[in-house]
Fold this sequence. Notes:
The complex is a heterodimer of chains A (425) and B (306).
Chain A: H1 3-6, H2 10-23, H3 29-45, E1 52-65, E2 68-81, E3 85-89, H4 96-103, E4 112-120, E5 123-124, H5 128-134, E6 139-142, H6 146-149, H7 156-166, H8 173-185, H9 191-194, H10 204-216, E7 222-226, H11 234-251, E8 254-259, H12 262-268, E9 271-276, E10 279-285, H13 286-291, H14 296-303, E11 353-356, E12 359-361, H15 367-374, H16 386-393, H17 399-410, H18 416-424
Parallel strand pairs in A: 3-8, 3-9, 6-7, 7-8
Antiparallel strand pairs in A: 1-2, 1-4, 4-5, 9-10, 10-12, 11-12
Helix pairs in contact in A: 2-17, 3-11, 7-8, 8-10, 10-11, 12-17
Chain B: H1 2-30, H2 33-37, H3 44-54, H4 60-72, H5 86-121, H6 126-140, H7 143-157, H8 170-199, H9 202-209, H10 214-252, H11 258-267, H12 271-299
Helix pairs in contact in B: 1-4, 1-12, 5-6, 5-8, 5-10, 5-12, 6-8, 7-8, 7-10, 8-10, 10-11, 10-12, 11-12
Amino acid sequence: MNTGTDQPGAGQLTADVGTADVSTADVGTGDQHTAAGRSGNGQGSAGEAGQRLLEVSDLTVGFPTRDGVVLGVDGLTLNVGSHERLGVVGESGSGKSVMGLAILGMVLPPGRIMGGSVKWRGEDMLDKSVANRVRGREIAMIFQDPMVSLNPLKTVGAQLRELLRRRAGLEGSAVKKRSIELLDMVGIANPRDRLKSYAFELSGGMRQRVMIATALACEPLLLIADEPTTGLDVTIQDQVLGLLHDLSTELGVSVLMITHDLGVVAQFCDRVQVMYAGRIVERSPITEMFADPQHPYSLGLLQSVPRIDFHRGELTAIPGEPLDRTDFPPGCAFEPRCREATDICREAPPPLVQFAYRRWVACYNRAPSRAPDRAPDLTADPTADLAAESGSAAAPGSAESAAAAESAAAAESGSAESAAGAAAT
Amino acid sequence: MLRWLARRIIAAALVVFVVTSLVFVVTHVFTDPATVSLPLEASEEQRDQRRAALGLDRSIGVQYWDFVSGLVVGDFGESFWQSQPASKLVLERLPATLRLVAGATVVTVLMAAPLGMLAAWLERRFADHAIMGLSMAAISAPPFWIGYLLIIVFAVQLGWVPTFGSSGWRSLILPSFAVGLASAGRLTQMTRRGIVEELRKPYAVTAMSRGFSRSYTIVHHTFRNIATSFVTMTGWELTRMFTGYTVVIEVVFSWPGVGRLAVQAIDNRDLILVQAAVVVLATLVVVTNLLVDVARRLIDPRVELL
Lengths: 425, 306
């Protein structure tokens, strides 16, 4: 990846990561999956990279409460290209899940979309007819709790049949054939027998596999995965993540991975956006994010996660508590918890500014001052730069980026939520 | 399933036995059928005569044995008022009550299910508030008042249906509504609330995220999932109908059912007949509960076979 030569800070990363590679060699099958899938993706998608699928700009979702409107998502901007795996990371309550549903044009009442746009391949997802067509067919979502996300009273077969008939337009014997094929694809043994099973007869991992099968039923181009591994055992988490990775590579499906787990992001994603209080605070390719986090919140997240690749001494929790969403500061949302806050931080929310190639940050103390000497190319507009981003994101074949991802994946399931919890106590 | 069913039937029979025994205790130990059946000014001699005629001078154990062995063959004793076997009188009236409850159940279910789904579909919109308001009114109004209102509007003013009696299906319409409206109101509210709750559950959100419309999700996913509560609640409403609403409404509409017979029996101080009516109604309640359990088991594969 060319950023290594562009940035002085990246050299240090490569060194850290090199040692990590050795220590993670015996981590397990999940990681082997990942490594294989990753390099495969690099080759497969290089040709068609840059095709823009999803463009969300300035999306704002509000929930009226007694104390005024709470913004679940506040001016969110993101892009997902074809064959891309984008991670959105943030602690609970940062608006990640609301974001996932809002992209599908679904906001549970009393919440509503108050501004911004969601464009899917150029079409307006906030238009009901477009959303009805795209939902489940071109964009499918998988949810965090597989124990309750399948209908408890319908067999696996009935749920697949319903989707294939009504949404994929299959009929007759093709329905059953495709159902079996889908279950087989997600690694369920004896798929024919499993069609007759109810969700309560399956284990958590199996349910999430069925969930993934129903998501893939209509051959979507984008999968939104909202904490897909949260409710699962650690070993199962790894399997499910590996499965998602392989499937996204084989089928060429882009994935928007919503998670609080930095390990998941490192293991799975090409790029990552960090969300705090409904806003994006940092956006970066995965390698640079882990090597050189810019926003104080990103830094805090990383410092609160144990890593086995180098010794850092004590883990640090982010001071303060997650925001009370009804009492929003006028300036930067992270200001009350930020060690580096200055007066300007209290005045207005900092804009998301590009400071280096493919890197953006929303912080007064970082971007403006560091931008000139760190960013070789500031001509690109943050929202219009996707072609370039996906282009290089799709070729992570180089040794250091794979190694970096591995090392961070090996970080023992650290999470933003545990960081926030530690801070609260 | 069959073993479970057999166990349930035995349990239900036990409940019926306990209930009838309680009825016996109330009528024979706490009160005296002979005294009750005679005018207040009757002499002690007349009472003794009546007691002897009814076999009430025997020991209570013997009387109980008589009562229970009579029940097994459907013999509840003889009504003083009608001088006929009480069981014959009650069984003659039973079909009319069953017809009324069936009609009321149809009204309840056919109103509650669609209206509840509609209100949930249009959550927080005008139609939702209107349906909820009307169902609240139906719950609050006493059934006898609803009955009179229906008679005045539809039978007297509009003349669409007969005012009373049980001739043909047309005469069944008003009493069915009178019995069923309160139940329909409660079930509508329960359905609406249940579906609105279910729609926020992950499986429903998942279904909608797969592109199924809100209405399709309500009908094909959430309603099915509240069906067990719906059936259970319907069972409770049937219980209320058997033991309460039909009694009142049969009187209001001069409906020749068991409830009205029981009221007449009380008026005529006929404890034997009251006893027979109570035992039959209690049995219907127990049977209803048994059917509800079977239905729940058929709907939800997770219901334990206990």
